[in-house]
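Dear all,

This email documents one entry for the complex benchmark we are building for the journal club exercise. For each entry we list the sequence lines for every component of the assembly. Then comes the predicted three-dimensional structure of the complex as a token string, followed by one or two observations. Please use this as the template for your own entries, and keep the labels exactly as they appear.
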Amino acid sequence: MNRRKFKCIIIDDEKLARDIVKNMLSNNSDIEIIAECENGFDGLKAIQELKPDIVFLDVQMPKITGFEMLELLDEIPEIIFTTAFDQYAIKAFEVNAIDYLLKPFSEERFKSALDKAIKKANSDSPHNLIKEKLSENVITSGEYLKRIVVKKIQKILVIPIEDIEYIEAQDDYVMFMTTQGKFMKKGTMNFYEKNLDPKVFSRIHRSYIIRIDLIKQIEPYGKDSYIIIVNKDLKLPLSKSKYQQLKNSIL
Amino acid sequence: MNNPIINTKNNFLIYSTIWVVISLVQIIILNQILQLPLDYSITDSIAYNVIFYSIGISLWYPTKFMNFERNKFSKIILNHSIVALLTSILWTYVGYYLLIYVIKISGNEIIFLEKSLLYRFIIGILFYLIIVLVYYSNIYYDNFKKNIIKEYELQNLIKESELKTLKYQINPHFIFNSLNSISSLTYSEPTKAREMIIKLSDYLRSTLSTNEKQKRDLQTELNNIKLYLEIEKIRFPDKLEIFENIDSKYLNIEIPSMILQPLIENAIKHGVYESDEKVVIKISTSAENEYLKIIIENNFDNNALPKKGKGIGLQNIKNRLSLMYKQDNLLKIAKTNSLYTAIIFIPLESN
């Protein structure tokens, strides 16, 4: 039987770090390295174009992190993280990474990670469907988001959290209204509610999260219902249950 | 707190001398001015003054007991008034009975003694007041001294603990990433791997041996930084360029140990780690108005968003410098579009 070769991409900003992965892969005839990338932008492009089976991914890289890169992917290959930082292990587990290799790693450790990845890639399990909700699962272990990474017509933008005015739910997507314009991204309101600083942002409605200091006025709107006035062109609904909560957090 | 008079030999001698002088003055007054016989003058003076001499020592205890910290002022005045009255009456009459019934003076001397009782009582009050005041000033002087020492110790403690928290810590990621690079080099270039191991060891040895209180000469600090940068240069050969312009006459100047390291690390972290392009780190020195200026410059990618954690390291450097040189503003930061400059000022007089 003709054995299938697994396509593999290595993403790391340091050449020596890519080299060691390459070296450890070199005596495995099942693996074909199809690309090496030194940052998340290139990595994203390579994954989208080349559709690899397995990706070795560093976390801290220029411009965007490995995690931020994954958020922008519609379909996620098997990921093996390689990093010197041990604090992302839980996060890696939550994005369903195959393994998490702490630099420096042994050949045995590397091989076991690779074996797991090959097994998973072979099994054709529908894990990619599970990962569709990737961004909802990502929790930033106690730290609030400092920036978001979005795609707009093939361009990747890193938006500081300070630029976000409000977030609106739109089916499987969320829409960010920012000082730089509107951006759409796959994700859920629950994720952003959990991962934005509640002192700065408030979930005012099932479909809205707003920057608290933009709230100019709260007015009653019909029976048991309220409306938040930001300016004369922007009014957002405020649900009854959130009214008391918001009142407490502002006053 | 012990009785200050009998506490030290010196104080005891001074106290005794004062009483000898008082006794002599009294003898002279009685004999020369009041024309009393010399033997009576001497007996009278010694009898009365020996008594107050011993009373004076024991007055320490009520004074110590009635300190201003624990008692109301009015209560203290009232208590002292009563004690002063009783002490003086006691003194006057003990002396009186001693002279009449023990020493058995007679005639004119008894008449003089009886006439002088009121004056003796008033003098007793005065003695009492003076001694108590001396005791109080002693107590306050002592407390004052203790407070100064305590304050000083506290300041030292604060400084020490501050310095401890400001202590430079080796970034573990730097070590692990370097070890990973070494691991990689063992496949491709074993010689280079060995070279990097030695550099990393030298760097670790030098960094771990520093004491946060310590100052080291500029040369040592620069060598340490060079090791660090050379290691990063092996990791990112195309992304890092180092320029040095150090005037060799400053190399012996002492600077706080590991004070430059965080600045270099910032340059690497925000420059090299966050940029796709080449980052140039420039280290130079110059002198300006009695200060040695150590300047660290790096270009950075303006598009990269500032990463978290910025500021704490700089604040630490500032604090350390101000604790060591007791001057503020010894760290200046300037940031333009794509150039980041940090300048440390070392007062030259401190060397």
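Observations: The longest strand of chain A covers residues 31-37. Residues 129-135 of chain A have pLDDT under 50 and may be disordered.
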